[in-house]
TrEMBL record:
<feature type="domain" description="Aminotransferase class V">
    <location>
        <begin position="49"/>
        <end position="374"/>
    </location>
</feature>
<dbReference type="GO" id="GO:0008483">
    <property type="term" value="F:transaminase activity"/>
</dbReference>
<dbReference type="InterPro" id="IPR015421">
    <property type="entry name" value="PyrdxlP-dep_Trfase_major"/>
</dbReference>
<dbReference type="InterPro" id="IPR000192">
    <property type="entry name" value="Aminotrans_V_dom"/>
</dbReference>
<dbReference type="Pfam" id="PF00266">
    <property type="entry name" value="Aminotran_5"/>
</dbReference>
<keyword id="KW-0663">Pyridoxal phosphate</keyword>
<keyword id="KW-0032">Aminotransferase</keyword>
<protein>
    <submittedName>
        <fullName>Aminotransferase class V-fold PLP-dependent enzyme</fullName>
    </submittedName>
</protein>
<keyword id="KW-0808">Transferase</keyword>
<dbReference type="InterPro" id="IPR015424">
    <property type="entry name" value="PyrdxlP-dep_Trfase"/>
</dbReference>
<dbReference type="InterPro" id="IPR015422">
    <property type="entry name" value="PyrdxlP-dep_Trfase_small"/>
</dbReference>
């Protein structure tokens, strides 16, 4: 796959290696948003069909991306919103517990903690091993071995949001299915840049904000809920999630029945005339590129960085176990993180610091010049 920077409007002088913080807009996504803003200037251009059809198109595209039926997908304003819809419908018995991983994304941890408090259940946080090499596999094994018939739910990100470690979701999902444990995944950190299959991985619910690897706008996202959730209780009681809501003549009949499958989990006013065209444009481009090609491009791009780390004898896990689009690098003890980040900023290199590591998150708008600039600064501190 070739570099695609020409499809973005990133300034030439910056080295933006921070897609895990927020993606830049594709030119096409920016244009779709501007056109969406203009539509409301003349509201007669917005028909009753526009409240529903664009949403169905977006659901279909997202379904193709994660191998799911569009009917099991809902439009959400944030990952935390989608997660709450999922967690509040998890059945739990007295004496059962919930599981998450150490240093999980705050919204995921906080939502699960509230679920445990409400149900007087223990929250088990699975910590990683102290080692760096072999860390991913050993951590995955600890997670799997912690899941049993008394585990009500496992909530975790698709990759670790700080370290980029690729947990074996398939193996975790199989253990959850065997023990009748709900498996809820936050895909915000990887969906769009790394392949994921909700059926193969036996994921019960997948939530995903759109402003990172889906290349969409902020305050919007998508969620998958499998058939277990089809009779669940949603957060909201919007008229738009009811059966036959597209028929405006029936609105004041106040129907009790929700629409089919995951329709009940849509956020109210989901037919966002600005955000939906932007998400649609982004998803179409991602499906054209294919996440596996994005991942391979980033993997090849980081080859000089990985070689540099080997030459410097800096510990890291096996390359195939760390995502290429979100590469967490543990710093040597002698490196001053504050000074390093200031030096990177002075050289127009944009990455994030998370915990004891730095997070390098490239995409197909990056090239060898970006990686070389990063290595040159790192070499002054390592």
């Amino acid at each position: 796959m070739e570099n695609q920077k020409h499809l973005f409007n990133l300034p030439e002088e910056i080295h933006y290696l921070n897609g895990a913080y927020m993606s830049p807009n594709l030119k096409a996504v920016e244009q779709a948003g501007l056109e969406g803003v203009k539509r409301k200037t003349n509201p007669t251009s917005i028909t009753e069909t526009d409240f529903f059809q664009p949403a169905e198109e977006v659901k279909s595209l997202f379904g193709r991306l994660i191998n799911a039926s569009a009917q099991q997908i809902a439009l959400i304003p944030s990952a935390s919103y989608g997660l709450m819809n999922a967690i509040r419908n998890v059945p739990i018995k007295k004496g059962q517990h919930a599981i998450t991983v150490n240093e999980e994304f705050p919204s995921d941890h906080l939502t699960l903690r509230k679920f445990c408090q409400d149900n007087e259940a223990e929250l088990k946080v699975i910590r990683p091993p102290e080692l760096i090499e072999g860390r991913t596999q050993a951590w995955t094994e600890k997670i799997i071995n912690s899941i049993n018939e008394d585990t009500a739910v496992v909530v975790m990100s698709s990759i670790h949001w700080m370290e980029g470690l690729k947990f074996d979701l398939k193996a975790i999902g199989e253990k959850c299915r065997a023990t009748y444990t709900y498996f809820i995944v936050d895909g915000t950190q990887s969906v769009g840049a790394l392949p994921i299959d909700v059926n193969a991985f036996k994921i019960d619910a997948l939530v995903c904000a759109s402003y990172k690897w889906l290349l969409g706008p902020y305050s919007s996202g998508l969620a998958y809920y499998n058939e277990k959730y089809n009779d669940g209780e949603p957060i909201e009681y919007s008229w738009m999630t009811r059966k036959d809501s597209h028929d405006f003549s029936k609105l004041t009949t106040y129907p009790e029945e929700f629409g089919a499958n995951a329709m009940r989990y849509n956020v109210g006013e989901f037919s966002n005339f600005i955000a939906l065209p932007m998400i649609k444009s982004a998803l179409e481009q991602i499906l054209n590129w294919k996440p596996e090609n994005i991942q391979n491009y980033c993997f090849e791009l980081l080859k000089p960085l990985r070689k540099y780390l080997v030459d410097k004898n800096i510990d890291k896990d096996d390359d195939y176990l760390i995502s290429a689009h979100l590469y967490g690098l543990f710093l040597p003890e002698n490196v001053n993180l504050k000074n390093l980040m200031e030096d990177l900023k002075a050289n127009n290199i944009h990455i994030s610091a998370r915990g004891k590591s730095i997070r390098i998150s490239p995409h197909i708008y990056n090239d060898a010049e970006d990686i070389n600039a990063l290595i040159n600064v790192l070499d002054k501190h390592f």
